[in-house]
Design a protein that fits this description.
- Helix content is 35%, strand content 18%.
- A six-stranded mixed beta sheet has the order 2-1-3-4-6-5, sandwiched between helices.
- α3 packs parallel to α4.
- The chain starts with a helix and ends in a 6-residue tail after the last strand.
- β1, α2 and β2 form a beta-alpha-beta unit.
- It contains six helices and six strands, in the order αβαβαβαβαβαβ.
- About 12% of the residues have low confidence.
Length: 203
């Protein structure tokens, strides 16, 4: 993956690649490619276990070596959603039990476990990018409880926070075009939050 992306970058006179993790449909990767970057796009649906230590060590090695120019994270948000909270604010996660409430059923417990794992590796990737002074973006819905996880919140205290209201499919298209985001990442009627941390972007 890295070798192929580097070949693409070298043809454009670049010596680094961009990295999209938890890439989904790869909208950000498409935007980077259009700007002449080779891209490594990795998602759980492609059969890559981004919580596996060997995979995490490989990716952090790429980032630390500075062969990566920028990192974008679309960390899964399903287990961090407030959508399942009842009228009293109770749900699988709360502010006082951000890593999961006690007494959950087996299905919720497994969802919370996976969510915690992907959050923690995301935090590791962000930390690695910050140490290497590489720009790193994290995307999640503005209402996501992911932003409250201490592993994430402490890393983005000095980050640029961008909140984006998406009101219609037309707005999605304009927003995606203006900011070089892929439209597949921004469904209609959704407020998104982007946290940008690390070095100044040259991409």
């Amino acid at each position: 993956l890295l070798e192929r992306a580097l070949r693409h970058s070298l043809r454009q006179g670049r010596r680094q690649v961009c990295l999209e993790l938890f890439s989904g449909k790869g909208g950000i990767s498409q935007a980077f490619c259009k700007r002449g970057w080779g891209v490594v796009s990795i998602d759980l649906n492609q059969g890559f276990d981004l919580t596996c230590k060997l995979v995490v060590d490989l990716i952090t090695g790429w980032i630390s070596s500075r062969v990566v120019a920028a990192v974008w994270l679309g960390t899964p948000c399903s287990s961090w959603s407030r959508a399942r909270h009842d009228i009293d604010g109770h749900g699988p996660r709360t502010r006082s039990h951000i890593h999961g409430c006690p007494g959950l059923g087996p299905l919720d417990e497994e969802r919370i476990k996976i969510g915690n794992q992907t959050m923690k590796v995301s935090a590791r990737f962000i930390q690695c990018a910050k140490l290497a002074n590489i720009p790193c973006g994290l995307e999640n819905p503005d209402s996501s409880m992911l932003w409250l996880a201490p592993e994430i919140s402490k890393l983005i205290r000095d980050a640029l926070i961008i909140k984006q209201d998406i009101a219609s499919t037309d707005a999605v298209g304009e927003s995606a075009q203006d900011s070089h985001f892929g439209t597949s990442l921004t469904p209609p009627h959704l407020k998104l939050r982007y946290a940008m941390a690390g070095g100044a972007s040259a991409v």
